[in-house]
Design goal:
The protein is an alpha/beta fold and about 210 residues long. The strands form 2 sheets. Strands 2-5-1-6-7 form a 5-stranded parallel beta sheet, sandwiched between helices. Strands 3-4 form a two-stranded antiparallel sheet. The two termini are about 15 Å apart.
Length: about 210
């Protein structure tokens, strides 16, 4: 089993990179653990207070559960990955069953900030993108998928996303084995990464 961590700023193109890796291999060969699924449950907090939660700092994530699930997959056991609603800011009753696969991708803005999780990764990737491009993608995503107005997104970007990116996410770039500039549009870097994954898999399968 090959464990790959893929990090990068909000709107950097991480999901595009992940999808291109998945599409490069036979169906069912790659499983993805999404950091966002492991946000701590906030159902005990009054709804009007939930909008103030800082989702861009490491303390927002239940790392112990994420690492426990990764360990289960490495032992050949299936897991029930949580689901999280950005609209209610609560963990949902539904779960997603994840089976062990030859390649496990852990994807999220903060996955390279947690030392114990980082130590479990065979390959660490940082997806980089211009801040203006990231902001445009975040505005488009949050307005369509999360019911926010452009002003709400920009205010949150200035108050939380940008300072948290500079404090936690950008410094984690130094732990990456591979930096993918230009996000998901960098076909050369993604090709090199998929080639490397394939070569590692071929070695372990021999």
């Amino acid at each position: 089993m090959l464990v790959i961590g893929i990090a990068g700023g909000t709107g950097s193109g991480k999901t595009t990179v992940v999808n291109k890796i998945i599409n490069s291999f036979p169906a069912g060969e790659v499983a993805v653990l999404q950091q966002d699924a492991y946000y701590k449950d906030s159902s005990h907090i009054p709804p009007e207070e939930r909008s103030k939660i800082n989702f861009d700092e490491p303390d927002a994530i239940e790392w112990t559960l994420l690492e426990k699930h990764l360990d289960c997959l490495r032992r050949g056991e299936s897991i029930e990955m949580p689901t999280y609603s950005y609209i209610t800011c609560t963990r949902q009753p539904e779960t997603i069953k994840i089976e062990p696969r030859d390649v496990i991708i852990i994807e999220g803005i903060l996955v390279l900030t947690e030392p114990s999780l980082r130590d479990k990764m065979d390959v660490k990737v940082f997806v980089d993108a211009d801040p203006d491009d990231r902001l445009i993608r975040v505005i488009a995503r949050d307005c369509i998928q999360r019911g926010r107005t452009p002003k709400m997104v920009i205010d949150r970007y200035q108050a939380i996303l940008k300072p948290m990116h500079l404090q936690y996410i950008e410094p984690a770039k130094r732990y990456a084995d591979l930096i993918v500039p230009q996000g998901g549009s960098n076909t050369v870097a993604i090709g090199l990464l998929t080639d490397y994954i394939e070569s590692r898999l071929n070695k372990t399968q021999k």
